[in-house]
Records
---
Amino acid sequence: MQLVRAKPEAIARLVLSMKESPMGKVRVPVRVSNPFDAGRYWEADFLVDTGSTVSSVPVDVLNSIGVDASEIVEVFMADGRSALRRVGLASFDVAGVKRTSEVIYAPEDTEPLLGFLILEAMGFLVDPLQERLRPRSDLAVGVD
């Protein structure tokens, strides 16, 4: 098993850049880019959503940075509805930690969501008590 840990300087940048909404929802600045052309990117505050497995970005944004859809999948909403959505690969940068992951093409004008899989790949967890992202290593318990 490989343990992925965010570097201390990435954690420090993340803590400085995190924002909380009045409802306590965690938002973090993210750069999403074309995985084959890093010069084509978009930056925004993403809502951290551990209830979403895959991150989602508005379709017009993904089209504008040239992310290609690889398939169409059925996604399930929190209210039980389902919908067909395109999915592709995009690169994500959170506090200097970069990973490529699947991304769902969300409807235009919807809030971008940072899902569980990319957070896990980057070495971040959501601390529900503090309502913020933390490095996985801060919350892990060592066993000898």
---
Amino acid sequence: MLTEREVLSTINMLQSEHLDVRTVTLGINLFDCASHDFDTFEIKVRSKIQKYARRLVETCDAVGDRYGIPVVNKRISVSPIGTVGACFTRDQMVRACKVLDDAAKEVGVDFIGGFGALVEKGMTPGERNLIASLPEALATTDRICSSINVGSTKAGINMDAVSLMGKTIKEVAEATADRDGLGCAKLVVFCNIPQDVPFMAGAYLGVGEPDVVIDVGVSGPGVVNKALERALQEAGRKLTLSEVAEVIKHTAYKVTRVGELIGREVAKRMGIPFGVADLSLAPTPAIGDSVGEIFQTLGLSSIGAPGSTAVLAMLNDAVKKGGVFASGHVGGLSGAFIPVSEDSAIEAAARSGALTIEKLEAMTCVCSVGLDMIAIPGDTSAETIAAMIADESAIGMINGKSTAVRVIPVPGKKVGDIAVFGGLLGEAAIIRAPGGDASQFIELGGRIPAPIHSLRN
């Protein structure tokens, strides 16, 4: 139970500290829509999405209005289309993407995720066709997000898929060159992708999930930072890191309770099971809603300074400890995101040179995702991008955690230029890509075997 003071502090979070429910995501299983006949597939998909999602937006708005808690995004995740559409050609995959996009527009959701594939151990013809369709599919749709899983702790890393995704990211960027490579902002390459991520671009509905399910993702970096500032002011002294961790933990508890409340109420009203609360601190480009500002509050000149990895490790752990106690079921990624273009303080640090890709990679060892929303020069080679994916996948594989790469090689732009993506995706200065040549390594192909600690049976 919350005390009266905690209730009042939560209300203040909503009014002035950017607390919101970042997303309510409706997962819909499409395996029962599979068909060799594309017209039959289309009818089934449209019908099922319409059946379950037609009331999603209005329900989220009604629940948000009742509690005074805004639900910023209403989204859908579906079964991986690389599997559902295993018999589809490349052109049919493009058509499938447009069917999903149209269905998303019909029910009014912001994004629909799941146009992706699980290829950590090998690729089927359908999955190859889906990946081949991505440049056209993401260039001709508005609300589609795609995630490709190329590795796992159990399976190792599929380097053939890694190489292919390096080339595909370049092609997607070129296909959306008129929008600063925006298609790449909707494409993420994972290792150890969770089956229940409510956040885009990684959201999809895993094969072990219910037929339909409501998952929720909360936001709160601004709330955490304000809580730390208040604690410092009230104490009248410097806090120890143990005390800092306690403040973060208690704040994460309150933030997660808000998300759990909204998610369960939406699920109840729609007659759909509630799945998980994703504890991830999701920033926005707005001033005061930044993960990066927390680092400055704790005494660093900016994120990227020495000590950043240690701060992020503490932040991630404290958020999880507070959130786990607040929620009946925790899932997704659950921790702290560090998406460069989506966080004003992180973007400023990258723009100034205080935060580099090498430091970002080091920090991904202890955060929720990986190299996220980073704009790099358009002439960066496909092999360099593939090697970045391989490095991040190795971190995830060895440490048994989720890692990912969402980089945008912005066509025609070089270091120091600005790429504008808009909305929650923000904008970013182009930063230097890693130097050196990895082309011969990437050409080797094959699979990097799973680590010895994967043998747990």
---
Amino acid sequence: MKFAPKFASAIRAAALCTAVALLPAATAGFAQVEGRASPEFARLQATYQRIKASYVEEVDDEQLIRGAIDGMLASLDPHSAYLDGASLERLETMIVGNYQGLGISIQMDDGAVKVISPFRGSPADIAGIKAGDYITHIDGRLIYGLEINEAVAQMRGPAGTSINLTLFRPGRDEPVEVNVTRGVIELEPVTHELMDGNIGHISVNEFSADVGDDVNAAIREMRSAAGGRLAGLVLDLRRNPGGSLDEAVELSDLFLDQGQIVSQRGRYESQTIYYDAETAFRGDAAAGVPVIVLIDEGSASASEIVAGALQDHHRALIMGETSFGKGSVQTLFYFDRAQTQAVKLTTARYFTPSGHSVQEGGIVPDIRVPQLSDPDAERRQRYALRESDLRRHLVNEIDRDDEGLERDVGADPRFTQTAAELEEQGIDDFQLHYALETLRRTARTGRTAVAARAAPAAARRN
């Protein structure tokens, strides 16, 4: 069974979240329309008048103007959109607050609801909803063709109430039925835990306000619990769809004491901005501690900025799967002083310190580690939605070898265990387990995690 070819949409939303490196900005007005556009506007006005005079039913002006705005933005790229009401509220909720619902990030494309990722520990995650699933029915009603606001409205609801979802899961012949009890989704951007061997595990779930400070505090707390010395650190960016560009820069700066973190390049040379280390934090907060960054296909935008910066500066070893590949920056332009209506417009591309654009290709891990503990992981990887799959996505301006865009599918002798075998060993997250074991071996041998980068490159060619 196949469910529509490839999907694209104007917003990556979760019931609240978009996968954007967002630069909020207010503006008094937009550029004036050039004179040569007059014939095009004449056609637009003629169409408006024809609809008002001849359509089978009377049409409200607001509906027509909103449709025209939506159409213009939809013709640009999948991340530009008009936001008001619920859609703007969802974006702002990413920065602060909480909401009641399922806790999933979704993509609305060609009328289909695709799950980008469930938030860790959310009702959707607990119920077994996976990244890459398509939600086809809610409480038995087909939802194909809904607008994203309608789909989100049906999935949200009071905490404690339940909802039945029918899912199409790539690789499965039969639909998957799940019952999810809604909960209060607290936006907890950072969680941490000190693991065996004095290895710190920090999960960054979204790039909302003060993420850099929160991670810094987590490092200090775990170092204290470890008696003053951490043996290693796992920075977990899996299923993190992004957020604030400024917070991505600050988190990167936490681990870097020199050099460039990211550059942002717009339409004109004057719009080029460079972000450097030592602007938010002084020194390396984890100096001398080997770091592994975990990423997957759900790691996008701000997550890719951090992974790319630490990879290019050889400050961390990147593990997991190739990231989403969203290398663009969106700016929020408000229409009114009350900030109730806005246009989210793609205004720039960003580049890693080495000048690499992650647009389309994403961040390629130094060691590809499949999620063997998930029996559907390999099948879902084959159908994973990434930026390059989205209709009208920006094309990477830097020429890249086609082979560099292809995922390595060669068999790796290190990764042959089945999900059932891992479950017997008590391993429910193989990627995290592999990262922790790598750091424990590093602590025993005294070898740095980054120094191991050359070895896995040879192993990947096996």
